[in-house]
Amino acid sequence: MINAEAYDRGFAQLSSHTVGPLLERAHAARLLDVGCGTGVVTAAALALGAEVTAVDADPHMLELAARRHPYATIRQAALPELPFADGEFDAVAGNFIINHVPDTAEALKELHRVLRPGGRIALTWWKADEMTATNVFAEAIEAAGVSYEPPPRPFTANDTPDRFAALLTTAGFEEAAVETVRWRHQVDLGAWWTDIVEAGGPRFAVIAGQPPEVVSRIQAHYTRLAAPYARDGFPVCAYLAHARRSPG
């Protein structure tokens, strides 16, 4: 279970850096925000005048998103099965959701289905080896000697620009391209620790589940590992893929 409020303070702020570029590639009148989380893409799209439908699998995320964005249509759903008609949307935006789906190819086919002919899609995912902002937590767990088996990453087989662009083409999209987006995530290191640990989720719920003395040991390693980024922020890298459904 994810603590939506903590997620919103932490992960959502990290992921918000790509919202502008994402919507530049996939802004339209009828937008589907897939894997909406607490609604950072939804908020930006509403501000641009879009009619937004937002979906997520987590009911706590949806509750927070619905409370904050009453003018959006909020529904519980998860790829690769969406409760929408063929061609229902002018654009699809997915901010760091495609890296969580169990079957990338099937998810892209479903997103292709719900797009109208000529509609645009834009999706982001993390470049895992440059994800310093969260890698410091994994490194701290390891340094503390905690036995930890990270959840599998099925998306790893498709996470390079060439592979992902090829999957978009196979799913029926045209003009597939992948851009690299880099930034520094500037954040109070103490608040970042609190928000990530409290958010939980599949990767870092293991921290809060430890005895207090072990949590303190992990935190001490985190503080040491994160200290070099206190002034300039964590260097972070993501990929942004975009394409168009064929007009015909």
Explain what you see:
The chain is an alpha/beta fold and 248 residues long. The chain is built from 11 helices and 7 strands. Strands 3-2-1-4-5-7-6 form a 7-stranded mixed β-sheet, sandwiched between helices. β2 (51-56), α5 (59-68) and β3 form a beta-alpha-beta unit. α7 packs across α11. The longest helix has 15 residues, at 212-226. The radius of gyration is 18 Å and the shape is globular.
Give the topology, please.
Blueprint: H1 4-9, H2 11-15, H3 19-26, E1 30-34, H4 40-47, E2 51-56, H5 59-68, E3 73-76, E4 89-95, H6 104-114, E5 115-131, H7 132-143, H8 161-170, E6 173-185, H9 189-199, H10 201-208, H11 212-226, E7 234-245
Parallel strand pairs: 1-2, 1-4, 2-3, 4-5
Antiparallel strand pairs: 5-7, 6-7
Helix pairs in contact: 7-11, 9-10
Briefly characterize the structure.
This protein has 248 residues and is an alpha/beta fold.
CA-to-CA gap between the ends? 42 Å
Provide mean pLDDT, rounded: 95
By helix and strand content, what is the structural category?
Answer: alpha/beta
**Radius of gyration, in angstroms, nearest whole number:** 18 Å
Overall shape: it is globular
Largest β-sheet summary: 7 strands, mixed
Number of E-type strands: 7
Counting H and I runs of at least 4 residues, what is the number of helices? 11
Proportion in β-strands: 25-35%
Q: How are strands sequenced across the largest beta sheet?
A: 3-2-1-4-5-7-6
| Helix percentage | 40-55%
Order of helices and strands: HHHEHEHEEHEHHEHHHE
Q: List low-pLDDT spans.
A: none
